[in-house]
From TrEMBL, chain A:
A GO BP entry: transmembrane transport
Source species of the chain: Xylanimonas ulmi
Top-level lineage group: Bacteria
UniProt name for this protein: Oligopeptide transport system permease protein
Compartments (UniProt record): Cell membrane
UniProt topology in membrane: Multi-pass membrane protein
Keywords: Cell membrane, Membrane, Transmembrane, Transmembrane helix, Transport
TrEMBL record, chain B:
Superkingdom of the source species: Bacteria
GO BP field: peptide transport
Keyword Cytoplasm: no
Protein name: Oligopeptide transport system substrate-binding protein
InterPro entries, sorted: Peptide/Ni-bd, SBP_5, SBP_5_dom
Pfam family, one: SBP_bac_5
GO terms, molecular function: peptide transmembrane transporter activity
Coiled-coil residues: none
Keyword ATP-binding: no
Keywords: Signal
Length: 308, 542
């Protein structure tokens, strides 16, 4: 298993190179002149614009730009933003916030999704099951920004239960509402996934055997039904980590959370290649590692799975 | 529809209740987000802002996010009151006999917040640094009228004789030509002084600037907030009347607006588009909606076929202008937060007039417009689609479409908006002159002067003359205005410039943007300046 993990980690290198090259190419292909935009409606003196272009290597061909970027990475230099801040610092400042948000979201969606899904699966066809099926449908159908704005206005402004935005005040109290909003869609998927597999597993042979052996209902459900049912759920949660870290742009915008999503959003607005590429690559790596952890978890959930 | 919306609400409440019950215990909610202040006017005013796009060096800060911080951290030779009138701040006097050589005397005993004195050399070195091209300062063109400046190569203003330190408290500025409004511009951030320590490491200084203004920077949490407290050593008129100012950075104005409603934000200087219709009823007498020094237009390059400065082009420009129903568009699309233009400047500028001869071309007149267009067609028929390019990352799509429709319906030609994904992309095509139609244009004044709305935009070869307009009469009148011996005489010349502009229409004026903002019940004395930025040092809280 150690060998398996090491091999998987080694695979990160080509993925890293491929991802940075692709993203760099995409940023390079973006139309527009970021330096011209720095001057606003007024424009910049051509000599100043030229020097700024040279400073950010924007006057070089694509491969040279990319090469310089890679060379910088090898020496631990992630490049500079237009505001003359090291991208590594920007990332280091934004990531903990996003991590907190993603962690809280993951807990909410996993606990609520698995809990409700399990109950619905056991009482399949009942009123509880039907109600949550409808709710999950609605959560999947309503776009996240609608949900976000509605929740912000209702709980933040009208009721005043929580501050409407996070800003510099990152705490459990401020993050809980965005986390619930962010969790809502995945909650619906996890609920449905859990419900289906639980309902399926309840009629499986080993469960009938366990029940026939005279085990308590609680033990049958906990050990024999739930454990088997969790494999697809864990897979989903693993991929969701990546989505949470990168795809939270909308939620971070609505609730003004100074995280990676916001950082990426403003970097794209300013065509800051080093920031965009470094942040995106970082997200790719997080995504890959979370998938690796998921794969390793399989063995815990199902001892029949072995790694070669 | 109805069922789904209702279900959505239920689900939201259900999900909320679920999560709340799951997490209700454990956290006692110890953090205090609103920070209710006690004591009179010692509260810290929280205003909206955005992360500065550049290091906080005055000559390198050309956008509003960094600008509003810089303006509180530094004091210039003059400052502007709410009406845009200049008052001496650091300057004792600014005098000239010929509008070309200016002698500037400083008040004695002023210091930066680190205790070092504010002397003539602090201004001279800062301006020289800002003008030197190799320093890549975004506002370097502000020094272009000072002797010795070059936009092509490194040239020092001091070596070129443009700036001379006479003694500790006096320096002399020599301009390349007379400029009657020179003192007016000296409140702009590019002209702030720098402490000598800044020149040791400008990059580090941009991270933690030391100024001589009413506030000093305590903390700059990037992408989150900038915290400032009153600077006790500041002796000017702009004394802080509160316990400090914190700019909270927002990437989405809707979030800021909701924070204002919930009392988490004290002052908001821009209302998101989605709330324009209801912000005045939401905020009551705490809503602000007044004209600002922002002029909006669209520009057609004079080198485009059919739109040159010849008889045909002039007819077409006038026809386009008369084909736009500005009253209706500002009412319907902007809900009254724009004021239809009556000239090329702004009503908040001293010398503004709504009766410049020729401005009837801005009145909607369908029959006349159609007639002018037909006359132009008789000279050379027009075919194809008239486009107005705009950047979709700003709030432009709705009005561009409306203007295009107005033109289309009145003139019976094809007209439409041409969407660019963002400002950078639009700017690239504008600078490279690759547009085949009009582009949206606008001007926010850097300092309260009529000239600032005219010179940089319509002077031959001027920095922002995107339409490549050139008229010797305009150039002559502009320079006569600059050498006039009084502001009134100068303004008369600038109004003559506008008369000519109404004949030529190098840009089609549309409307003045209002500043729409508001404040929360937590604060008092909120007044917006001529440049749409609230005078935060005057705001009281607590």
């Amino acid at each position: 298993m150690a060998w398996y993990a090491a091999r998987r980690l080694l695979q990160l290198i080509p993925v890293f190179l491929g991802a940075t090259l692709l993203i760099y190419a995409m940023v390079f292909l973006l139309p527009g002149d970021p330096i011209a935009a720095l001057g606003g409606d007024r424009g910049l003196p051509p000599a100043v614009a030229e020097q700024l272009r040279a400073q950010y290597h924007l006057d070089q061909p694509f491969l040279v730009q990319y090469g310089l970027y890679l060379k910088g990475l090898l020496t631990g230099d992630f490049g500079m933003s237009f505001s003359r801040r090291p991208v590594a610092d920007l990332l280091a400042a934004a990531f903990p916030t996003t991590l907190k948000l993603a962690g809280l979201t993951l807990v909410i969606e996993a606990v609520a999704g698995i809990g409700v899904g399990l109950w619905a699966g056991i009482r399949k066809g009942g009123i509880f099951d039907s109600t949550f099926l409808v709710i999950s449908l609605v959560l999947i159908a309503v776009p996240i920004f609608v949900l976000g704005f509605a929740a912000q206005v209702l709980f933040g402004v009208r009721l005043g239960w929580v501050p409407p935005t996070v800003g510099g005040n990152v705490s459990f109290r401020t993050l809980i509402l965005p986390a619930i909003v962010l969790a809502s869609v995945s909650f619906a998927y996890i609920l449905r996934l859990t419900r289906t597999t639980v309902a399926e597993n309840r009629t499986a042979d080993h469960v009938r055997t366990a029940t026939a052996k005279g085990l308590s209902g609680r033990r049958v459900t906990g050990v024999h039904v739930l454990r088997n049912s969790l494999i697809p759920v864990v897979t989903y949660l693993g991929t969701d980590v990546g989505a949470l870290l990168g795809g939270a742009v909308v939620t971070e915008g609505i609730f003004n959370i100074p995280g990676v999503g916001n950082l990426l959003f403003s970097a794209i607005n300013r065509h800051e290649a080093p920031t965009i590429v470094s942040v995106t690559t970082f997200l790719v790596i997080v995504y890959l590692i979370s998938n690796l952890i998921v794969d390793l978890l399989y063995a815990v959930l199902d001892p029949r799975i072995r790694y070669a | 529809m109805k069922i789904r919306r209702f279900a959505g609400l239920t689900a939201m409440v259900a999900a909320g209740a679920l999560a709340l019950s799951a997490c209700g215990s454990g956290d006692t909610g110890s953090d205090d987000a609103t920070g209710a202040a006690d004591g009179a006017s010692t509260g810290i005013v929280i205003a909206n802002g955005t992360e500065p796009q550049n290091p906080l060096i005055p000559t390198n800060t050309n956008e509003v996010g960094g600008g509003r911080i810089i303006d509180l951290l530094f004091a210039g030779l003059v400052y502007y009151d709410a009406d845009g009138a200049p008052h001496n701040d650091v300057a004792e006097s600014i005098t000239s006999d010929d509008n070309t050589t200016w002698t500037i005397k400083l008040k004695d005993g002023q210091t930066f917040s680190d205790g070092t004195p504010v002397h003539a050399e602090n201004f001279v070195k800062a301006w020289d640094y800002g003008a030197l091209l190799s320093n890549k300062q975004l506002s370097s063109y502000f020094f272009e009228s000072i002797k010795g400046y070059s936009a092509d190569e490194d040239a020092s203003l001091v070596d070129g004789g443009g700036l001379t330190v006479d003694d500790d408290l006096t320096f002399t500025v020599v301009l390349t030509g007379p400029e009657s409004d020179f003192p007016l511009r000296l409140g702009y951030s590019a002209y702030y002084p720098l402490p000598l320590s800044a020149f040791d490491d400008m990059e580090a200084f941009g991270e933690a600037p030391i100024g001589n203004g009413p506030y000093k920077l305590d903390e700059w949490n990037h992408n989150v907030e900038a915290k400032m407290s009153p600077n006790e050593s500041y002796t000017g008129d702009r004394q802080a009347k509160n316990g400090g100012v914190t700019f909270a950075f927002y990437t989405d104005l809707n979030a800021a607006y909701n924070d204002l409603l919930a009392g988490n934000l004290d002052v908001l200087d821009q209302i998101p588009d989605s709330e324009i219709a209801n912000f005045e009823s939401d905020l009551g007498d705490r809503a602000v909606n007044q004209p600002a020094a922002i002029f909006q237009s669209f520009t057609i390059n004079v080198n485009l076929p059919h739109f040159g400065m010849d008889e045909e082009g002039l007819l077409r420009r006038a026809a386009l202008s008369m084909a736009i129903d500005r009253d209706q568009i500002t009412d319907v699309i902007f809900q009254g937060t724009r004021t239809p233009a009556t000239d090329f400047t702004s009503p908040v500028i001293n010398g503004w007039s709504d009766s410049v001869p020729g401005n009837e071309v801005l009145k909607f007149d369908a029959a006349k417009a159609k007639d002018l267009w037909t006359q132009a067609d008789a000279i050379s028929p027009y075919s194809g689609t008239f486009t107005i390019a705009y950047n979709a990352d700003g709030p432009h799509q709705a009005w561009v479409e409306a203007v295009a429709n107005s033109i289309k319906n009145t003139l019976g030609i094809d007209a439409e908006g041409l969407s660019y994904p963002d400002f950078a992309t639009l700017r690239a095509d504008v600078t490279n002159r690759t547009l085949t139609g009009a582009n949206r244009s606008g001007w926010q004044a850097d300092y309260p002067s009529l000239f600032n709305f005219l010179g940089p935009l319509y002077g031959t070869g001027a920095g922002s003359n995107d339409g490549d307009y050139s008229n010797p009469d305009v150039d002559r009148l502009l320079s006569e205005g600059l050498s006039a011996d009084s502001v009134e005489a100068a303004n008369a010349k600038f109004q003559e410039v506008q008369e000519q502009l109404f004949k030529d229409l190098p840009a089609i004026p549309l409307w003045y943007q209002n500043v729409s903002g508001g404040s929360a019940e937590t604060v008092d004395n909120v007044e917006f300046g001529w440049n749409s930025v609230p005078l935060l040092y005057e705001v009281t809280k607590g």
